[in-house]
Write a structure and sequence with these properties.
Helices cover 38% and strands 15% of the residues. It has nine helices and eleven strands. The protein has helices at residues 16-29, 67-77, 95-109, 123-128, 138-151, 189-198, 209-225, 259-271, 288-303; strands spanning 2-6, 33-36, 82-85, 88-89, 113-118, 156-159, 164-168, 182-184, 201-202, 234-240, 276-280. Helix 2 links the parallel strand 2 (33-36) and strand 3.
């Protein structure tokens, strides 16, 4: 299993200097990946974000560097480390435009891109992007089909219910054959079922051990039922982590707590043949140097 970390492209640590510093340090450390996400807005009233009641958005969403541009900058600063989006809200984009941006990044990085996609969750962002929320579901599946067409051989031609691409030549094609691997933010049965049919893997959260293990068993069964090979699917776990000097004794979110506690969680993920886990500590009051120090310690765990 490989591990990675989120770039400081949002919140109080966000700056071009910080992004370049972390990118170079992570690459030199031998980490597996660097990650960014997309946020269009920090809405100033309580919003519905997936689960639970509407709540105020965190202050750190007020400034979020664009994901593709941030990874392009990181690509110029690094040599080996993979560059991933976790996630870009696909429905806010046109497949041709996003496909060309990913392909261009794949060239600048020498084929190191992982395309993490989601559907979006905040109603105000859908309205801002001028996209109806009813496009979620079938529209998301069609978006991925159109994206793969953009990355495929010329002439490209696509006709669907939501998207259309006139027969044309679209370049550059990605460095990676067939395009970057597409992983989908999936945590519910419908999203897992969809991902099993159209994606190259999933990008779930890790809420608790029993739930996560059952989710993986179910997902791999869905992949097999779709006539695909579960062993070819990429499992990338996202951890919005808080690392503490002392163990957390109360109820603890997995992949948070002391280094020893997180190390035990990583060993559990390894036992489930998870491919990758990455840590986003930018939402917690953790300095960049401390983040890198923690990542160095966790890198030794997965290499042991």
């Amino acid at each position: 299993m490989e591990i990675g970390m989120a770039l400081p492209h949002y919140g109080k640590n966000a700056s071009t200097q910080a992004i370049g510093y972390v990118a170079q340090a992570a690459d030199e450390m031998g980490l597996g990946s660097l990650w960014v996400f997309e946020r269009l807005l920090r809405v100033t009233v309580p919003v519905q974000m997936g689960w639970g009641a509407p709540a105020p958005m965190a202050d750190y969403y007020a400034t979020v560097y664009d994901p593709i541009e941030t990874l392009t900058y990181a690509a110029a600063k690094t040599r080996k480390i993979k560059l991933g989006t976790s996630i870009i809200d696909a429905l806010f984009h046109a497949p041709v435009i996003l496909g060309r941006r990913y392909a261009t990044l794949d060239h600048f990085s020498g084929g190191r891109v992982i395309a993490g996609l989601g559907q979006g969750a905040i109603e105000q962002e859908f309205r801002t992007a001028n996209v109806p929320t009813k496009r979620k579901g079938a529209g998301f599946g069609e978006f991925i089909a159109a994206l793969r067409a953009v990355w495929g051989p010329d002439p490209v031609h696509f006709e669907g219910r939501f998207y259309e691409i006139a027969e044309s030549e679209i370049g550059p094609k990605p460095v990676q054959a067939g395009g970057p691997p597409i992983i989908v933010a999936s945590n519910t049965p419908p999203s897992l079922e969809r991902s099993a049919q159209i994606a190259d893997g999933i990008n779930p959260f890790f809420f608790n051990r029993d739930q996560f293990q059952q989710m993986l068993i179910g997902y791999r069964g869905m992949v097999k039922a779709a006539g695909r090979d579960p062993k070819q699917q990429i499992i990338v776990v996202r951890a919005n982590s808080r690392v503490t000097l002392e163990p957390i004794m109360e109820q603890r979110p997995p992949l948070s707590g002391s280094i020893d506690q997180i190390a035990d969680d990583l060993r559990f993920l390894q036992s489930l043949e998870v491919d990758h886990a990455f840590f986003d500590m930018n939402g917690a009051p953790t300095s960049i140097d401390d983040q890198l120090r923690y990542m160095e310690q966790l890198q030794k765990v997965v290499q042991a």
